[in-house]
Amino acid sequence: MYYALDAIRRRPGRSALTALGIGLAVGLVALLLAISAGVETSATELATASGVDLIAASANTSLASGSGGPIAHAHELSSAIPRADPNVEVASPWLVSSLVFGNASLWAAANASAVPPGWNQTLAESVGWIPSDNTGIEVPSLYNGTGFTLPGDPHYGNGTFDGPFTHQIVLDQALAGALRVTIGDLVWVNLVQAPNASALPAWYADSVPFEVVGVSGPFWLIPSALISFLYLSELQTIVGGATPSTDDATLVLIHLNDPTTASSDQTILERAFPSLTVITLSEILGEVQQAVSTYRTFGALVGIIGVVVAALFATTVLQMSVDDRSREIALLRAVGYARSRVGSLIAQEGLVLALLGLAIGLPIAYAGAYELNRFLLALVPGLPVGFSFVSFDASVLLSGIAIVLAIGLAASALPAARAMSLPVSEELRAP
Q1: Are 78 and 158 a contacting pair, CB within 8 Å?
Q2: Which of 101, 181, 235, 322 has the CB geometry, 3.0–4.6 Å to 230, for a possible disulfide?
Q3: How confident is the model at residue 14, as a pLDDT?
């Protein structure tokens, strides 16, 4: 090892550039592996903690398409699904739709024909659900307000859709901030946006006012920074489908008493409800893993290119080192060093350079991953606390070490062979 360190010390500039090249290659590979590990780990943890064991969608819906037609008779399914499968604790129908929001300030300005430039309505995703029927399913936490005050779905009225409206709504913090509203304020909701400021009075006249009863945190299940939550029947009334013959929903989230039998429950429910497609949590995670695997394959190709370039660069440097010390190596052979011992000295030099590259590359990868994770968390809205796009777990570190050892050994192979085959007598007679 002393010989290798002495060789590196005598050529500090060349050695430093070689270690940096190896470090950049290792850092790139480690960063790519950390991203795939982070996304997969975070997705698995979120899905497992969500309490959602099965998702029911309309028939012929696939994970690849991600969408299907509406589910009819949603309110009935919330009780019919547990009856069909005693292992189902909760079946929560959800209707997801985009709505346009306006606040009181815009309403006052519109009525005064004095709408400031840049003022407009706000588009947000909205969830219609039965607030009291989400036991076991992770839902957004309220930061302010009491939330929905009545259990069940009052306007549904046991299937008549003639019950009272609550006109209550919960906004997430981002939407409440965008609308500049707080608890007790009114917001107006419509399906369409007013084309211009002069159309705003008519837009408000055709919109439905809701009272803000809660401000919640973001909700990772809906990938949007602006989300509102309403009673299911009241959202159905706005978007259509609020009749006993339709009673539409987008999906049904199912929480099981025993999640280990999810596949069996999937079969039971699909037989009991032919109009539904039931998807298990493991199938969803499988899609996530497949997407991550595709990314990992692409990352591996990029990483392999970087590693090959680093190995070739290190090979060239070690070959130059052998040529520079050819007479010295010949003297070692002349005093009794075996060919294998000479080759091992060159291999040690390659490994030391690779380990120096590891010491450079891992901090670079970690710093790059930290900044990239911070950037992506700011870029992607609605992610929960604790979500991370990167993860430096043991597999990432071990992969980095393995790559470094591979580079060191591969880079030293040809130079070591060159050192072992040097003609001793010719090198010693050379001037």
Answers
A1: no
A2: 235
A3: 66
